[in-house]
Amino acid sequence: MTTQRSAYRASILHSIADPKEVELEQSYQYFEDGVLVVENGHVIDIGPATEVLARHSPSMPVTSYQNKLITSGFIDTHIHYPQTGMIASYGEQLLDWLENYTFPEERRFKNPIYAHKVAKLFLDELASNGTTTALVFGTVHKESIDVFFSEAEKRNLRMIAGKVLMDRNAPDYLTDTPESGYQASKDLIEKWHQRGRLLYAVTPRFAPTSTPEQLATVGKLLEEYPDVYLHTHLSENKKEIEWVLDLFPERDSYLDVYDHYGLLHKRSVFAHGIHLSDCECERLAESESAIAFCPTSNLFLGSGLFKLTKLEEKGVRVGMGTDVGAGTSFSILQTMSEAYKIMQLQQEKLHPFKSLYLATLGGAKALHLEDKIGNLAIGKEADFVVLDLHATQLMRFRMQQTITLEEKLFVLMSLGDDRTVCETYIYGDKAYDANPSLSKHPEKKVVNIA
Ligand code: GUN
Ligand code: ZN
């Protein structure tokens, strides 16, 4: 980490509140000519350039960007690193997709050399898409998480991840037992949780692949380590829900299965939650659990339309997830574009400032990390991106027709993707540089901080 004080001058936009709680104009800060000052991995100043520069020594190094926008790094609240190699697999809905594509690929992570190769590629992909924090599934193999965390640690990333727990309804080559899964999770928590910026998530895959005995061990781990996360799937697909109710006939609902074993707490994040009853939404809110909205995955697997408004009205915190490899893009910008379309199919709108919130501060709140990340307020960790609103010919042409900031932001979120991300900074250091001269080509130069 660079300890030197450094400044970055560009247009700066960041989310400071949920637009559902304040007037739209109060939900963000925008400095047309702004300066962000960073020291020891943290934001120490932000504001209009003339004011900020006057407060600091003239010898402070300033990197100036022409026609660029700085915003805080994107937060992906649900993604599977081992599914990088089978993204875009054809033709199935959830349960067959798991059987035919996912499990065979996850088998390969028994080999730590393969796992390490994919972890590096995955983290490069997050950086080139401007994602600076993610909540990540590994595989059942303990080593899959060891290699993931060691690579994330080298890059100084704030990452949350966990080994998958599965002791039934999966191929033998991918199952553990209640005892072995418990012990491996415990070892990983002791080794990695709170080490630097890393955090651990206890990760049962979903209710159908864990016995009641295994779910009880998950509850035990959460009791023993109350500040670790719980990360799993919930109510994604109609057949999945029927299966859960068959496997746990004594429980009232899918969520009630998790609730019964003590898995609902303020650091629980459930992916999807598409087909939830009012009671389930209320229980999620009451327990302060969060839901990851994964639009590209929900469309790709034909899972259904996410009820953002209903969940928010019930008081549930929601973050955005790509859910790669069921999701089809690492880009949170593309994810917001698909989220907008999902809302349109329900005759609702998703305002660009709300999208900005969900992609950054809302994700941080879903993870209870808003004191550390999610925007560029003074004191936060300096994870930020430099975006080019004119990254493609089409974007440049379209941007010329825009007048307001919200129009520009909407075009950015509808047309933007990794081509829009010029640089990504992690904890105050440049972790990715697209090199503008190469930006028209698919090859990108990735500089890892080692
Ligand atoms: N439910 C259980 N496992 C998975 C998975 O790997 N991806 C998705 N989208 N849903 C799941
Ligand atoms: Zn998933």
Automatic annotation (TrEMBL):
Transmembrane segments: none
Pathway where this protein functions: Purine metabolism; guanine degradation; xanthine from guanine: step 1/1
Domain Amidohydrolase-related residues, every copy: 70-428
Cofactor: Zn(2+)
UniProt keyword terms in alphabetical order: Hydrolase, Metal-binding, Zinc
Stretches assigned to coiled coil: none
Catalytic activity: guanine + H2O + H(+) = xanthine + NH4(+)
Record-linked InterPro entries: Amidohydro-rel (IPR006680), Guanine_deaminase (IPR014311), Metal-dep_hydrolase_composite (IPR011059), Metal_Hydrolase (IPR032466), Metallo-dep_hydrolases (IPR051607)
EC number of this enzyme: 3.5.4.3
Gene Ontology terms: biological process: guanine catabolic process
MF terms in GO: guanine deaminase activity; zinc ion binding
Cofactor binding, per record: Binds 1 zinc ion per subunit.
A Pfam family hit: Amidohydro_1
Root EC class: hydrolase
GO cellular component, one term: cytosol
Highest taxon, organism lineage: Bacteria
Record function comment: Catalyzes the hydrolytic deamination of guanine, producing xanthine and ammonia.
Similarity comment: family membership: Belongs to the metallo-dependent hydrolases superfamily. ATZ/TRZ family.
Name of the molecule in the record: Guanine deaminase
Organism: Vibrio qingdaonensis
